[in-house]
Amino acid sequence: MSHPDEARLAIACSEAMHARDDAAQALGIELLESTPGRARLAMTVEPRMTNGHDVCHGGVLFTLADTAFAHACNNRNRITVAAAASIQFLAPGRVGERLVATAFERSRGKRTGVYDVEIHNPKGELIALFRGNAHQIRGQLVPDPESPEGDPSA
Amino acid sequence: MSHPDEARLAIACSEAMHARDDAAQALGIELLESTPGRARLAMTVEPRMTNGHDVCHGGVLFTLADTAFAHACNNRNRITVAAAASIQFLAPGRVGERLVATAFERSRGKRTGVYDVEIHNPKGELIALFRGNAHQIRGQLVPDPESPEGDPSA
Amino acid sequence: MSHPDEARLAIACSEAMHARDDAAQALGIELLESTPGRARLAMTVEPRMTNGHDVCHGGVLFTLADTAFAHACNNRNRITVAAAASIQFLAPGRVGERLVATAFERSRGKRTGVYDVEIHNPKGELIALFRGNAHQIRGQLVPDPESPEGDPSA
Amino acid sequence: MSHPDEARLAIACSEAMHARDDAAQALGIELLESTPGRARLAMTVEPRMTNGHDVCHGGVLFTLADTAFAHACNNRNRITVAAAASIQFLAPGRVGERLVATAFERSRGKRTGVYDVEIHNPKGELIALFRGNAHQIRGQLVPDPESPEGDPSA
User: Fold this and answer.
1) Per residue, what are the HEC states of chain A?
2) In a mutagenesis test of the B interface, which of C87, C135, C137 is the best target, namely the one with the most B β-carbons within 10 Å?
3) Which carries the bigger pLDDT value, residue B148 or residue D51?
4) Which of A51, A116, C113, D67 could join A57 via S-S bond, C-beta 3.0 to 4.6 A?
C-alpha cells in the first residue's frame, strides 16, 4: 500500500508520460493502472501488428512490455531509462486478443532497478516474460514541490 | 560466400517474409540485404516512433533488431521463430536518423540458433546490441523443390 | 500439489543428479527440496568462493542458481539441459552467509521451458535473480517403468 | 593499440585482481592477457568441474567468462562490478579440454559498460557466448598517482 501522495504522483507521472508516448499511442496501448513501482497496460492485437508468420510481431509484444516497464520505473517522478531488457516468447499473440502487461519492481538501488513484466492473453495464459534494467538519470516527469529536481538524492 | 542457389533462396525467403510483415512495413523498415544467416535492414526514426522522453521508443529499436534477426534465421527457408531475445540500449535513436540493423548467425544447431544484431546510427555509432535465440519449427517460407517440407532434416 | 508418484520421482531424480554433480558438491551445495518443476538448494559462502573484490564470485552465485535450475527442469525424469541463462546481481553475497536458491517453472512446452531462480541471503534479502531456458534432450535420469526412454512423448 | 602506460596499468590491475580472486584460483584459471578493455583467460576442465550430466557445469563455464569480463572492465583501474550477465550454452565443455575465454568491451559510458565474452575449446569451436553489464563504483585496484581515487571523474 503506497502513501496517498505517492499514489497520486504515480498516476500524474504515468499520465504525463503516456500523453507524450507517441509510439505507445500509435499501438493503441491503454494505461490501466500505475502505482509506485508497478503498472498495468493493455493492447489489442491488430492485423497491422503482425509479422511474416501472421502472429503478433515480437517487437510489438516487446513494445507493450517495455512501455509497462517504463511506467513502473518512472512513476516515482525520477526520469529513468532502460539500460537493457530481455524477453521470453512463450506463446503467440493472436489478432483480436487484448493483451495485458503487468510490470513490477523486483529491486531498486540508488540509481538502478530491476523490473519484471508479464504479458497475459484473454484466456489468462502467460505469453511473454520480460525483465528490464533501469537507470535513473537527472530530471523529473512532473513538477514536484516536495522533492525538487535540485535534490536528486531526495 | 554462399552457394548461388542458397543466395537466391535467401533473397526469395526475405522478400516473401518482408511482404507479409505488416508490423515492419508500418514502421517503414527497408530490407537492404539478405544472405544465408545474415541480413541488413534500415529504418528512419519518425516522431510517431518516440517515447515519453522524446527519443526512439525502445520497443521500436527492438522491433527493428528483431526483424533483422527474423530474416537472418529464416532465410534458409525453414520457418524459425524467436524463443527469447535481449537488448542493450547504448545510446538513443533520434528523430530523422536512418538506423541500420545488421544481423548475423553466431551458432546454429539442428533446430536452434543464436543470432546477434547491431544497430548503428548515421554517424556509425553503435546504439543497440541485440541477441536472439531462434527455434526452427515445421514449414517453409517459399516452395523449395530441392528440400520439400516433408523432409525437415534436409 | 503433485501426485505422490511424481513427488517421489522428483526426489529420486534430484538425488541421482546431485550425487553425480561434482561441481555442486565441491561448493558444498545442499539439496533442500525437489518437487516437479521446483527445487530449493543452499550454499554457505566460504573465503575460497570470493573474487578480487572480497565478495562471493558472481560465477559461484550463478553456479548455485544454475544448479537449482537444473533440478527444477530435470526432476520430471527427462534429461534437460540449459540453452541460455541470465542473472541480475542485486547485492553481494558475504562470507559466512548461507544462501538459499529457489527455482520454479514459469513455462513448459513440449521440449523447452523457462525457469526463474531467486537467491536470498539469511536476512531474507533478494541478492540475485536468474532466468534460464531449458531444452529437453533424449534420456532419463533414473529408470522409470511408467514411461520408458523409448517413448519420449510420454 | 593502447598507450604504454595504460597497457602497464591494465596488467598491474589484472595481476592484483587475479592474485586476490580465490574462486578463479580454485578453478585453476590462468590470466593470459590483459589490455585496456580486453582480457584473455584459460581454464582446463577437470572431473571436479562436471555436473550431473558429466560435462563441464554451466556455472563453471559462466565463472570462467565472468572472470574474463571482470578483468576487461576493471583493468583501467576503476573498481567495476557486474550488474547483470547472460550466457548462451552452445556446446558442452569436456573433461581435459583447455578452454579460452576472450572478453572485449562493446560500449563504455561514464559509469557503465557492456562486455562480450566468447569461450572456445581446443578445436577452435565457440562453446559459449556471454554478455555482461558493468557498473563502475568508487575505488581503484592499484595505487595510481596519475588519477588518484579522490578524482573518480578523471
Assistant:
1) CCCHHHHHHHHHHHHHHHHHCHHHHHCCCEEEEEECCEEEEEEECCHHHECCCCCECHHHHHHHHHHHHHHHHHCCCCCEEEEEEEEEECCCCCCCCEEEEEEEEEEECCCEEEEEEEEECCCCCEEEEEEEEEEECCCCCCCCCCCCCCCCCC
2) C135
3) D51
4) A51
Q: What domains lie within chain B, and their CATH numbers?
A: 4-136 (3.10.129.10)
Smallest Cβ–Cβ distance between D106 and the set B106, B107, B129 belongs to: B129
pLDDT-derived band of residue B5, with 50, 70 and 90 as boundaries? very high
As averages over each run of 10 residues, the pLDDT of chain C (154 residues) reads 86 96 97 98 98 92 98 95 97 98 95 96 98 94 68 38
Contact C114 A88 (CB under 8 A): yes
Any C CB within 8 A of B135 CB: yes
Stretch D39-55: mean pLDDT, rounded?
A: 95
Nearest by CB to residue C106, choosing from A109, A129, A133, is A129
Burial degree of B130 (CB within 10 A; 0-12, 13-18, 19+):
buried
- Asked if residue B66 has pLDDT above 70, the reply is yes
pLDDT at B152 over 80: no
Top residue of D80, D108, D110, D112 to mutate, by most chain A CBs within 10 Å, is: D112
pLDDT in tens, B9-52: 999 999 999 999 999 999 999 999 999 999 999 999 999 999 97
User: Which pLDDT score, from 0 to 100, does residue C150 have?
Assistant: 43
Contact C133 B83 (CB under 8 A): yes
Contact flag C133-B135 (C-beta cutoff 8 Å): no
In contact, A21 and B39? CB cutoff 8 Å: no
Main-chain phi, psi angles of D140, to 5 degrees: -125, 155
